[in-house]
Amino acid sequence: xxxxxxxxxxxxxxxxxxxxxxxxxxxxxxxxxxxxxxxxxxxxxxxxxxxxxxxxxxxxxxxxxxxxxxxxxxxxxxxxxxxxxxxxxxxxxxxxxxxxxxxxxxxxxxxxxxxxxxxxxxxxxxxxxxxxxxxxxxxxxxxxxxxxxxxxxxxxxxxxxxxxxxxxxxxxxxxxxxxxxxxxxxxxxxxxxxxxxxxxxxxxxxxxxxxxxxxxxxxxxxxxxxxxxxxxxxxxxxxxxxxxxxxxxxxxxxxxxxxxxxxxxxxxxxxxxxxxxxxxxxxxxxxxxxxxxxxxxxxxxxxxxxxxxxxxxxxxxxxxxxxxxxxxxxxxxxxxxxxxxxxxxxxxxxxxxxxxxxxxxxxxxxxxxxxxxxxxxxxxxxxxxxxxxxxxxxxxxxxxxxxxxxxxxxxxxxxxxxxxxxxxxxxxxxxxxxxxxxxxxxxxxxxxxxxxxxxxxxxxxxxxxxxxxxxxxxxxxxxxxxxxxxxxxxxxxxxxxxxxxxxxxxxxxxxxxxxxxxxxxxxxxxxxxxxxxxxxxxxxxxxxxxxxxxxxxxxxxxxxxxxxxxxxxxxxxxxxxxxxxxxxxxxxxxxxxxxxxxxxxxxxxxxxxxxxxxxxxxxxxxxxxxxxxxxxxxxxxxxxxxxxxxxxxxxxxxxx
Length: 656
Known about the structure:
Layout: H1 3-15, H2 19-32, H3 37-49, H4 53-66, H5 70-81, E1 89-95, H6 100-112, E2 117-121, H7 127-132, E3 145-149, H8 152-155, H9 157-161, H10 167-191, E4 196-200, H11 220-238, E5 243-245, H12 247-254, H13 262-268, H14 274-291, E6 298-301, H15 312-315, H16 329-344, E7 348-354, H17 357-366, E8 379-383, H18 387-398, E9 405-408, H19 412-421, H20 437-442, H21 454-457, H22 459-475, H23 480-487, E10 489-495, H24 501-510, E11 514-515, H25 523-531, E12 535-544, E13 547-560, E14 563-571, H26 580-594, E15 599-604, H27 616-619, E16 623-628, E17 631-637, H28 638-641, E18 650-654
Parallel strand pairs: 1-2, 1-3, 3-4, 4-5, 6-7, 6-9, 7-8, 10-18, 14-15
Antiparallel strand pairs: 10-12, 11-14, 12-13, 13-14, 15-17, 16-17
């Protein structure tokens, strides 16, 4: 039977409801032609029907990588839309030109990082009307996020075309364009509560003659940099909640020769090549990841043939390849340099290796070419147990969900096992050649955050401090009360400070376990609550004898007459179990009394991960009121909670 007949037979079997038989037939096709798009789509549809979502997404990811064209993305996007699941997030892509292909690329890129996104493309060149008109078609889609792409040549024609344009005239043109953009964006923000706007900055214009040397003031690159800097400054000032993506930087990753397909541009008004659209979509998907609180927190690494070349058990501590000027040592050094960059941005590093523990640790401690040292690793499991079980232990030790982990291993058998046992762990396909590891890691945009805070930078130090706390607890010999007193915990609960607002937004959007509602917010919403006299926003800082955990808790509450309504309350998992949660509620009670409130109401909305906070309100003295759709409502009178205090082992400082 030829391939066409096999595909036809598999399709018929799938239509009849026999996904298992259809999958067996279509796998034979993929053995012969691994990158056959139609066969990949049928295989993915079979896997979705059989409930193996992670395998289906892996098949689609492979197909998208093999042929990243608009037609491929369109076919995959249509299949993803048929899944019958509620979308995790709704978004729209608007701007100049034809945008349906970019919307399809975003749909596929989002699926690749575990997000089911429903994407609506705006009409051709109608971005201004769409932002200004609440009745425009895109708003029927009820997008939570809108991506705006700008055409530099349309908005800044003289900057692009006039080689002798004076600085004053150029700045005037830039400011006029930015004013229009701000007016349109402001209109959309006013009309659509909670909307997150994401603006792609000014990008390069195709077919602009290159300039060698000459007047730096009139150099195209300098002009573009000035325009983007003014755009960033103005948007940050006027619309602080808007996210600005570096379009020129994205374009630099693909090269200026890959900006536009001239035939498709003049034929269909498509402004970007497939290569560029894929890069843009990956950045857009990273924004969705951060907004949904799905940013990956931990990079779990194999050792042999992953962090270094060779097998330490056979080649010895100094015999493995790492560092130097020759391949493969230089490739592994470049990979480790990329890992260190991620660590500096707050990504937790862990090691998972089948080795004798001391053999592997000796490389970290003694090999002169190693950039990563043992102190950089927050936790490790180096033994001969299966890696899936070891990863479960690592997640427990680090007190994070396994769905916040990324596992990198050169061995396809280990990757397959991890996907089977832990489908929630992102286990991508590493390049076969280590020379590609560093570039691959750079393109793995699942660790992105919308802000980088001091807490991010110090995260590895924080986990080292947690290990010291664990050692102290063990030394206490089971006397947990004595252990808590010995920690010398200091908690500061104060009114939100302007400098802390970005960290507050980040914490709300990243905290999953001890989070009463898991409602996500934008910078603009947090800023609005901070500025409102009706709202109380409390930031909580925690420190002890081992170190300062920083801003690790938030409470937001609205005064509605005599009632303080807690909108959300949350704490980082790094400070749970030490009484900080009680201290925070004691502070909320003091704040409510200071506002003249006589009662407090709270709400628990269950999610897949927030069971640790399920009974919190009852534990601190609230009474259960009602339940609807799993959500529980609680209430308490201020006079009933007036005696609530921080535990005796906590030194509490408050603003009230």
